[in-house]
Design goal:
257 residues, mainly alpha, Four Helix Bundle (Hemerythrin (Met), subunit A)
Length: 257
């Protein structure tokens, strides 16, 4: 299988070095174009007025919150089942990014909810399930770093990620299963989007910008995790070799650089 090819961190770093600048460029271009259409080219809503523009941040952030958790759970499963070291790093690197997207979705949702619903927060089915998602991210990160042995932390956090993934379809279909304040899906529908193109275009552009940003930051974090792993490994080798700390530190710096 192709993902076994990139179990070697050195091979993965070569791929990451090729993708990272393109992801960065795509992030900047998509954000600029998305913000232009969202703030200047898109009209206000006849009911919500200018507050509808919060949608262009809130909705893509909510999509990314679910996407990141799904990606984290898949990577955690690959790491748990096939002992794939890079997949495990991808899961660890995805968790804080997904938590930030989830917090952004909750925060912008509160800003949007106050003028629309008259309150900052209600225990709506979708709101509650997204809040649970945020706690799952925090729990994953806490559990991954709760053990002295990184392998034990990876295994425990992977199990939590796989158990928690059942919350993702709950978020997605909560508006269909329960009576909530959120409107039903209006973009991804079998009959096609039920949203005007003037609003759909900036929404899609911002969603793609968030996706490119995720890839960009994910690669940065994974490269950092791999370098930290190299440093730990080199330190252990130097300690076992009985070299002085100063000499070991100089050699580690040279090796990583």
């Amino acid at each position: 299988m192709i993902f076994h090819k990139y179990a070697n961190p050195t091979r993965f770093l070569k791929l990451a070095s090729l993708i990272q600048p393109w992801a960065a460029a795509a992030t900047v271009l998509l954000f600029l174009s998305g913000l232009y259409f969202a703030l200047l080219a898109s009209p206000g809503d006849y009911q919500q007025g200018e507050t509808v523009r919060i949608m262009y941040i809130h909705v893509p952030a909510a999509w990314m919150a679910m996407f990141c958790y799904t990606a984290m759970a898949v990577a955690a499963a690959v790491g748990l089942i096939w002992k794939h070291p890079v997949a495990d790093l991808a899961a660890r690197a995805t968790a804080p990014i997904g938590a930030c997207f989830t917090f952004l979705a909750l925060f912008t949702g509160s800003l949007w909810g106050k003028p629309m619903w008259g309150t900052w927060w209600v225990w709506d089915a979708r709101l509650t399930s997204v809040l649970i998602l945020f706690f799952l991210y925090l729990g994953y990160m806490a559990l991954a770093n709760a053990f002295d042995d990184p392998a034990r932390g990876s295994k425990a956090s992977a199990i939590l990620a796989l158990v928690g993934v059942v919350n993702v379809p709950v978020i997605k279909f909560s508006v269909d299963w329960w009576n909530t304040l959120h409107q039903p899906a209006s973009v991804v529908k079998m009959s096609g989007p039920a949203i005007h193109p003037s609003m759909l275009i900036p929404l899609i552009l911002m969603a793609l910008a968030f996706k490119a940003y995720y890839i960009w930051v994910l690669l940065i974090r994974m490269r950092a995790e791999i370098n930290e792993g190299k440093i730990r490994s080199l330190r252990l080798r130097q300690v076992h070799a009985g070299q002085p700390p100063d000499a070991a530190g100089d050699k580690i710096t040279q090796a990583v650089n």
